[in-house]
């Protein structure tokens, strides 16, 4: 999820943060490069962004200003675009590329002319590619997904790490029924899940199990066209598996169907659930808040009909259109993807990494991070599935989340029927994007 003179200011309010944006504001005349990143203003991640920008300024002489925003990030970008006042650089999710291209916000990136571009993983470059085959960003950070599990609970209930979906379901039941925290109360759940609809989280969460079962939302039909496949039996099976956890075994934390990731992180930290399918960005946080000896990272088991696979995503450095600082934009992108920039963004084992898995193939992650649990995420990345380069992925994810959330919230809902209806909606969405 994921971001000028005399150092970098991390802006803590929108009113301050929007003073002099890059493309049309004061930065156009004072040559200060304005960088927006989707992180909470006072977070450790925002501090890491500050370190990255400070190092860039020291190396290049280009002054920078970092604006860290989290809530309603895309809405605030829209407001700036309406004022023709976009920042110079945006560090944001790979899944937002299509939306920003369709808005005309992005400058194309010449991969061959980008210093260090040849050192980046080809998989990461795919996530910087538009539906027209052009590159619209510099890859910056990658991530796959895995299970962060309460190891102490698993040992308390006497079970081995899950190797199959059946094993995983049984572990969730044990965490729900067998008082793994030993407090004598039935107040724990198996799964903690951000299963709400905000920003498409229900779809985002389900994606890894869908991909682990060989399913998908849409498939390439060749020549830049796509077909909806969300009612494929493998996809239906994955969503049904999750509905069973909500409705039959009742092993998901209460309130999950209304929660986003911010709330779900806290649910896990408070010991209200023991299995969290999530990206690596919370590992250091949980090591500190839950305890390093109490958590383990396990790969997502292959589904009964496919796999292996998890959702693949990350952040790109987007060079925003209309900037008067195009040379500085390119220099910042080159610094961010360089080994030095990647290592600063990784932040070693500490909380606040804005580079989860490095995209620069010359960076040895094991030399930067001593915690071996990171390797599970790195290994999973070999099977990661990125959102395809349709013109705009955002409405596909949101529409999918609305349907998937509904079948989890309503235990009388028939999953196959709902997914058939969703397939029709996604077909219509692809048609509206002229991508089918």
What's the mean pLDDT score? 92
Task: Note poorly predicted spans.
Answer: 1-29
Largest sheet: spatial strand order? 2-1-3-12-4-13
- Shape type: globular
Report the sheet-strand fraction. Answer: 5-15%
Distance between the termini: 29 Å
Proportion of residues in helical segments: 40-55%
Instruction: Round the Cα radius of gyration to an integer and report it.
Output: 21 Å
Largest sheet: 6 strands, mixed
Give the strand tally: 14
| Backbone structural class | alpha/beta
Per DSSP, the total helix count is 18
Summary, kept brief:
By secondary structure, the chain is an alpha/beta fold.
What's the arrangement of secondary structure elements?
Elements: H1 14-17, H2 27-30, E1 33-38, H3 44-60, E2 64-69, H4 73-82, E3 89-93, H5 97-102, H6 122-126, E4 138-143, E5 146-150, H7 151-156, H8 165-177, E6 189-192, H9 201-212, E7 218-222, E8 225-228, H10 233-247, H11 261-269, E9 273-278, H12 283-291, E10 295-298, E11 310-311, E12 313-319, H13 326-337, H14 339-346, E13 357-358, H15 365-368, H16 374-381, E14 384-385, H17 394-409, H18 415-432
Parallel strand pairs: 1-2, 1-3, 6-9, 11-14
Antiparallel strand pairs: 3-12, 4-12, 4-13, 5-9, 5-10, 7-8
Helix pairs in contact: 3-13, 9-10, 9-17, 10-17, 17-18
Protein described:
This protein has 436 residues and is α/β, with parallel strands linked by helices. The chain is built from 18 helices and 14 strands. It has helices at 14-17, 27-30, 44-60, 73-82, 97-102, 122-126, 151-156, 165-177, 201-212, 233-247, 261-269, 283-291, 326-337, 339-346, 365-368, 374-381, 394-409, 415-432; strands spanning 33-38, 64-69, 89-93, 138-143, 146-150, 189-192, 218-222, 225-228, 273-278, 295-298, 310-311, 313-319, 357-358, 384-385. The strands form 4 sheets. A 6-stranded mixed beta sheet has the order 2-1-3-12-4-13. A 4-stranded mixed beta sheet has the order 6-9-5-10. α17 (394-409) runs antiparallel to α18 (415-432). The longest helix is centred in the last third of the chain and has 18 residues, at 415-432. The radius of gyration is 21 Å and the shape is globular. The model is unreliable at 1-29 (pLDDT under 50).
